[in-house]
Structures are given as structure tokens and as C-alpha cells.
Amino acid sequence: xxxxxKGVEKVTDNPFxxxxxxxxxxxxxxxxxxxxxxxxxxxxxxxxxxxxxxSDGVIIYSVYGxxxxxIVLIKQFRYxxxxxxYEFPAGLVEPGEExxxxxxxxxxxxxxxxxxxxxxxxxxTRPFFTTVGMTDExxxxxxxYCSGTPTNEHEEESxxxxxxxxxxxxxxxxxxxxxxxxxxxxxxxxxxxxxxxPLAFLDEQ
Length: 205
Fold this sequence. Notes:
The protein is an alpha+beta fold. It is about 20% helix and about 35% strand.
């Protein structure tokens, strides 16, 4: 295994996100600096050190309604863009927590809905990297079905969330006109072009 990270310095000490300076060796043998944001609290926990891709967070792709014709979205205010953005419900996976458990918890906290995960394995549930040029964060996706009545009463004080149950026409509008997280955008494109149960593809693994 190639190891081109020669040293790591932790620059900040924040609760949820920190900056690290990497001493790196470039492909031509020269050395330099690289700056990485990570949710890890210690340099030994960084994926550059462990080479293990454990999921930092979970994203929930959930279908709603008897006809399975709506998808559960949130419209959330995000400080980095100082604006609202459409996303899937998501959150951090707590230590010792399974991704499916995290998905059930996060859906309830952010939307008040009851989430029933669909059992999947392999490539569809393993964690993938988000913005790997900037951070070592990776997230897994959990798929399933939601029921119940949406409510904001369980969201945290720091959150500003509008719950959106979007049909295919509304998803088309959102993609054309709104701020959308990229992982959400790709799955909305999938949702728009499916017929019947949007999660049927999981049965073809």
C-alpha cells in the first residue's frame, strides 16, 4: 500500500469538525502540505492512518405513501451557503450504532416519521466518500419506507428544517430551481425515472 502521508498536525479542537495539516510526499518525490477537514477527534483515527472506511454518517432514501409515489426530503438551512438546500434526511452514526439504527433515529428526529429499512447488502449499503478532496468523511445510504405524520417537534434547536414529501413532478421542479445536495440530486434523478416501487432495484442485487 502506498503511504504518502508522512506526518499529521491537528490544527483545531472543535466538537464536530476539525482541520488537520498533512505533511505529504507528492508523486514526483517532492514534499508539501495538504489540508484536510475531518470529523475525527484524533490523528490516529483519520482514515489516512487507519485505512479503514467506516461510516461517519448515514443518508436515508425513503419512499412515502400507499402508492410509493413520494420521496421524503428535507429543506434545511445550511450556514456554509447561507441558504436553504434540499437534502435527504441524514446524520452522524453514533459510536456502536448500526447504520439502520441511525437511519431510524435520524428520520424520527428530523421528520417525526416512522422508518422501516429495506434489508440490503453489499455495494448498496457500504459507505462511500463524500468530498474526498477536502475531507475523509464517508456516508452509507439506508433505503426504506416511511409512514406517519410529519412534524418538526423532535428536531434540535440548531436545526432549521422543512419536511417535504415530494412526488415526481415536484422533484423535477426542485432539480431545476433549487439548491440541492449532490447525493440527493442523483437519487432524485433515479426516482423521477422509475415506475412503481422506486426501491425495486434493490431486489436485483
